[in-house]
Amino acid sequence: MLNYLQIWQDFCSGVLMYREIIKDLIRWKARPGRKPLLLSGVRQCGKTYIVGEFAREHFKSYAYVNFEETEQYSAIFDYDLDVRRIVSELEGALQIKIVPGETLLFFDEIQECPRAITSLKYFCENMGGLHVLCAGSLLGVALKREQISFPVGKVNRLRLYPMSFKEFIIASGRSDLASLFERWPSDRAVPDLYAVPMKRLLKEYYVVGGMPEAVKVWTDSHDIAAVEEIQNEILHDYADDFSKHAPPSEVPKIRWVWDSVPVQLAKENNKFIFSHVKEGKRSAELEDALQWLSDAGLSTQVCLVEKPELPLSGFADKSYFKVYMSDIGLLRAKSKISARTVLEEDELYMRYKGAFAENYVLNELKAQGIEPYFWRSGNTAEIDFIFENDGGLVPVEVKAADNTQAKSFRQFCKRYCPRTGFKLSGKNMAKNVCEETSAYSIPLYLAWNMLSYVGQSDTQPAGAQS
Fold this sequence. Notes:
By secondary structure, the chain is of the alpha/beta class. The chain has helices spanning 4-12, 21-30, 47-58, 75-78, 83-94, 114-126, 139-145, 165-171, 175-181, 192-208, 212-221, 224-245, 251-265, 283-295, 328-335, 339-344, 350-367, 407-416; strands at residues 37-40, 61-66, 103-108, 131-136, 156-159, 299-304, 317-325, 373-377, 381-389, 392-398, 420-425, 430-434, 437-443.
């Protein structure tokens, strides 16, 4: 069991902002047959920070190479891909001794040096004792844009997402709640002693989101204006990335699609419709722009599965999907919904309340290593998310309010008989049987712990290695 109290004390002292992925990094370090590790994630989600903390706590020395800040490092890889020569020259450039088993060698923004990506094959084959870790914010974009020889089968991979709600709870000084709810029984209602602060924290999370800089400012000051300044700067930086890294002909299309995501998500039928992005534009003209946002990690597409058979990926309709944003706080900022509107649940919030709840749950599922889809039958029945678990289907119905009278959920359970299903809402914890399904009613604020009720070991954990 993790010592969340110590985590919080370290956070307050400026030593550590706890991220779940640290457990995966520790496992990678000790893994037999370990390969160079490629850490991906949207820009500014905390990759550089967490790698630095990992190096400080678990290695004797740390060799940091940032290809974006110091372009000259790329020259070391231009001559050949002899990794012993490369390490020797890096030692001279960094003025540090790089020792296998003792040093973490970190290539940051590796997408800026395609030859460094190719070199990972040779680090794997010829210098396996050295811990090599790489990160790239726009790696997915770069791999499609550039002619890069990717070292297939020669790397382990992890993905870092913005801070989950559990991580936000810990950062907010309530590590006691994070620890308590890890073991909460499914048949025990949550008393107000715990439910009230959890509901308040969830509203704050909708406002702040999980971008680490925004979370740090919020926990330090509770200054909403300062948080929104950071969020708007991040959104501005993302827009700048469009111009820097996308083909010029695609930049306006990417902006149109990006601006359309929160608008379409707030509609009652929130299927993403290309003709709503820009009048006169068709899907063929905008598909590449949407794919760019997905490759950059800024958006997530959740595809329709009308006949939910396993594997779900084989039955997904990739032409019919919903689009969500990678961070709930950035969704709020981009939607121009004020913090007060969310915290006090004003009438203006009603239009977006369901969209926020769905986007939040989607991000929590992704952080747990789940690849969700959604189900629809005609125009009357829909399940917000379904995923595979231990050879079976798991439906997840999301309700922003207290209403859990989910006809679609019952219809799905009657037709497909999943062993386990979830209804996430504003209601308290409960368990009942729907047809042959163990149906758990779980408060929205416990979406992060949902898998504990079906056996977390049965599903690939967040940041699962390959």
